[in-house]
Specification:
Helix content is 45%, strand content 20%.
C-alpha cells in the first residue's frame, strides 16, 4: 500500500482483499468530507486503479517528480501509477467513491516483461486514463473474486495478475512517443529535463532553445502547450525538487544553495519557503522525522 500524505482528509476502507506473491487485489472505499487533495508517496509496485463508482468531479493528477506544480492532467476511470512515483491527485467533489485496486510487484512484473518500462512523458500522461477494455475486464473479475473468493482463488488471482502485467506492457509499448498538439517533441522535453536535473546554475531560455535547435519563441510556446505552465515556472520548480533531493543528504544548506545556482542562502531559503511552505532546515527535519518512523 502507498503512503498517503493527505493535504485534505481522505478516509480509506478496505472492504475485500486477496493477496498472492506477485500482487494484492483490494476493493476499497474512499470517503471524502471535502474536495480531495492528497499525495501517494513512493512505492515499489505498480498501482492500478479502476473506479467502481464515479470519481469526484474534475479529478486530476500530477507526477510531482516530472511535471511542474501547475500541470495536472485529467484522471479517467482507470489509471496506473508506476513504481517509485509521487502521485498528487485532486478532485473537486466530496462523498464516497469505490475502486478495485491491484498492486503488482514491480520486480516480478519487470522480470516477466523482460525489461523495465521507459516511463517517458507520453506514457506518464497515458497512464492517467488507461483505455484498454481487456485490462478493465480483468480488474472487474478481480473485484468479483475479492468479494466472493472460492475454490482456487489464489491461483486465479495470480493468473489474472500475470495477464494484467502483459496487457499493461503491451499498452505502454503502443503509446507513441510523439508531441502533443502544438507542443514540443518528447525528445526535446527529455533534453530539457536532463539539463534541469544537472546540479548547477539554471539554464537560460537561449541555452534551452539552442539545445532543442529551435527559436526561443518556439520553445516558450511549445513548452506551455506540452507542460501546461511557463518554462520559467518549470525551471523554478525543478530547482526546488533538486534542493529537496540534496536536503536528504548531509550537505549544508549554504552549499546546496550555491550548487543549484542561488546567489545566497537567504535567497534560496526565501524561494524554497515560497514553494513548499517550509524553510530548508524545517524540510530536512521533517524528512528525518519520517525516516525515524
Amino acid at each position: 500500500m502507498p503512503v498517503m500524505d493527505t493535504l485534505r482528509p481522505v478516509e480509506m476502507t478496505v472492504q475485500a482483499e486477496l493477496t498472492v506473491p506477485i500482487a494484492t487485489a483490494q476493493v476499497v472505499q474512499f470517503t471524502m468530507a471535502d474536495p480531495s487533495n492528497c499525495i501517494m508517496q513512493k512505492r515499489s509496485g505498480y498501482w492500478l486503479d479502476l473506479c467502481l463508482t464515479p470519481r469526484p468531479i474534475n479529478t486530476r493528477a500530477c507526477y510531482r517528480d516530472h511535471w511542474g506544480p501547475h500541470r495536472f492532467e485529467r484522471v479517467g476511470d482507470m489509471f496506473l501509477v508506476p513504481p517509485g512515483e509521487a502521485f498528487h491527485v485532486k478532485g473537486d467533489g466530496a462523498g464516497v467513491q469505490s475502486s478495485i485496486i491491484c498492486e503488482l510487484r514491480g520486480d516480478a512484473i519487470n522480470q516477466w516483461l523482460g525489461s523495465d518500462i521507459d516511463w517517458n512523458d507520453r506514457r506518464l500522461e497515458a497512464s492517467l486514463d488507461i483505455s484498454s477494455n481487456t485490462v478493465r475486464h480483468l480488474l472487474r473479475r478481480l473485484a468479483e473474486e475479492a468479494r466472493n473468493p472460492g475454490l482456487g482463488s489464489a491461483m486465479l488471482v495470480e493468473c489474472i495478475a500475470g495477464q494484467l502485467a502483459i496487457e499493461l506492457g503491451r499498452y505502454c509499448e503502443a503509446v507513441v512517443d510523439a508531441p502533443c498538439s502544438g507542443g514540443l517533441a518528447a525528445w526535446r522535453l527529455r533534453l530539457i529535463d536532463e539539463r534541469l536535473r544537472e546540479v548547477r546554475e539554471p539554464p537560460t531560455l537561449t541555452e534551452l532553445a539552442a539545445l532543442c535547435n529551435i527559436s526561443v519563441r518556439q520553445l516558450t510556446r511549445g513548452f506551455r502547450a506540452s507542460r501546461g505552465c511557463s518554462i520559467g515556472e518549470y525551471v523554478v520548480q525543478s530547482r526546488i525538487e533538486s534542493a529537496k533531493r540534496l536536503l536528504d543528504r548531509d550537505e549544508s544548506v549554504k552549499s546546496i544553495a550555491y550548487s543549484i545556482g542561488f546567489s545566497s542562502t537567504s535567497s534560496f531559503s526565501y524561494a524554497f519557503r515560497r514553494a513548499t511552505g517550509l524553510t530548508p532546515r524545517q524540510f530536512r527535519q521533517r524528512v528525518l522525522q519520517r525516516m525515524r518512523h
